[in-house]
Amino acid sequence: MRELSPILKPARIAAIVAAALLVTACTPFESLWRKEPPAAAPSAPPAKPELPLAQATHRFIVEPGTDVVGRLQVTVATREDTLPDIARRFNVGYEEIVRANPGVDPWLPGEGTEIALPTRFVLPDAPREGVVINLPAMRLFYYLPRKSKDAPLEVITHPIGIGKVGWKTPEGRTKVTQKTKDPTWTPPLSVRREHEKNGDPLPAKVPPGPDNPLGRHAMRLGWPTYLIHGTNKPYGVGMRASAGCIRLYPEDIAEVFDLVGVGTPVLIVNQPFLLGWAGDQLHVQAYDVMEDDERDWSQGPKALRKKGLRSKSSLWKRIAAADGAVNWELAHEVARNPLGIPVPVMKGREQRSEALLAAAPRVRNALPAGATWDGNEDQYAGEERFREMLAEREPERGGQGAAP
User: Fold this and answer.
1) Are residues 260 and 300 both part of a single domain?
2) What is the CATH number of the domain that holds 231?
3) 283 in catalytic set
4) Same structural domain for residues 322 and 254?
């Protein structure tokens, strides 16, 4: 390094000293060794409030003069969900949830997809007593006996599976004639022959247990080979998949079994288009017409109107009085695109399903408060104890021949 000129050395030193004095004069002394604290990280956005639990989806008070119960709701699918998962969680059937969500893949709806929950129902046009089953809706309604004359009317409703094409569940009036817990299934000859033809032979009797298609509860009807029962295949609820019997989710049949007594009347109807009042607003709820329904439904509710306006029922008397104020064109549109969602059809106050879904409450994708299901997939939880119980039972008391 080249040496500074002896003349310049004092001047350079003086300059450096002057600069140092200037810096220390402008800067607090302690700041020369203290470091400034790091800038605070930006605060995270506040967490979104958790959605509320869904309102009850299966038990309702029927207000006087009202034909509609429940509430349309919307939830959001998780990454792991299928539509059958969500259906059981909210006590609806397979066809119900698929119908209400056109264009959604049943097996991979996708995380974040909004899912319509069709948990609002127009009650069938039938006496409100005992058990009423509407086949196109694949729904059972049980009207609880009133405890007193002034007590409110309560209804319990659950999704069901019904007879497939060629094994149709019958229509008409009957009653509950027998109740059996942990039944034995004796397959009818017709069912055994079909299974043999398909290379799946059945034993003469299927004892209680996880392989029994009747599940853990069965109620025999006045039609000897037909039952209302549980199932060991819950994802078949909400489908036409049985040999004529009426299937419920295991948790639902357990509730119905406890409430419904022997002798309770049962009425099975075939009503694809339902009309009913909520306040002063007429609603239409449409389901798919069953493949083996031979009636002409090409005009949907319009055809029902022609017949209904001649009826003397209280429902149709009220509809007749308001006939001019009903938008029958919208009712027909609802029938052409059945979503299973009740739609108000009074002129000037119409609402289409898109608007109803947009206004529907968003609810947590979790079991509703008061749900019949506890989230346990296995109806035979505690299988070892169940088998011990069977061993302790009295000799065979299971059900005779039935088509499950």
Assistant:
1) no
2) 2.40.440.10
3) no
4) no
Choose the catalytic residue: 58, 158, 229, 332. 229
What pLDDT, on a 0 to 100 scale, did the predictor assign at position 8? 46
In sign, the C-alpha dihedral spanning 19, 21, 25, 27 is positive
Same domain, 144 and 232: yes
The predicted structure's pLDDT at residue 391: 58
Q: Are 239 and 96 in contact (CB under 8 A)?
A: no
Same domain, 249 and 347: no
> Are 214 and 260 members of one domain?
yes
Sorted by sequence, the CB contacts under 8 Å of residue 354 that are 6+ apart come out as none
Q: What is the pTM of this model?
A: 0.83
Cα distances (angstroms) measured from residue 324 to each of 333, 346, 347 = 18, 9, 9
399 falls within a domain: no
pLDDT of residue 4: 45
Average pLDDT along the chain, 404 residues, taken 10 residues at a time: 48 50 46 57 71 93 96 97 96 97 97 98 97 98 94 97 94 97 87 82 87 94 94 93 94 96 98 96 96 90 81 89 94 95 95 96 94 81 48 45 56
Distance CA 33, CA 18 (A): 20
Is 26 a catalytic site residue?
no
Buried-exposed string 216-238: b where 16+ CB fall within 10 A, e elsewhere? bbbbbbebebbbbbbbbebbbbb
89 located within any domain: no
**What range defines the domain where residue 337 resides?**
283-359
Of the candidates 134, 75, 163, 381, the one whose C-alpha atom is nearest the C-alpha of residue 274 is 134
Under 8 Å between Cβ of 349 and 327? no
Within 11-119, strands assigned E span 59-62, 68-70, 73-76, 114-117
Residue 115 lies in a domain: no
Both 138 and 208 in one domain: the answer is yes
Within 27-146, residue ranges assigned H as helices are 83-89, 94-100
Q: What is the DSSP string of 288-346?
A: PPPTT--S--TTTHHHHHHHHTT--SHHHHHHHHTGGGB-HHHHHHHHHS--S--EE-B
Q: 58, 245, 283, 332: which is the annotated catalytic residue?
A: 245
Q: In total, how many domains does the chain have?
A: 2
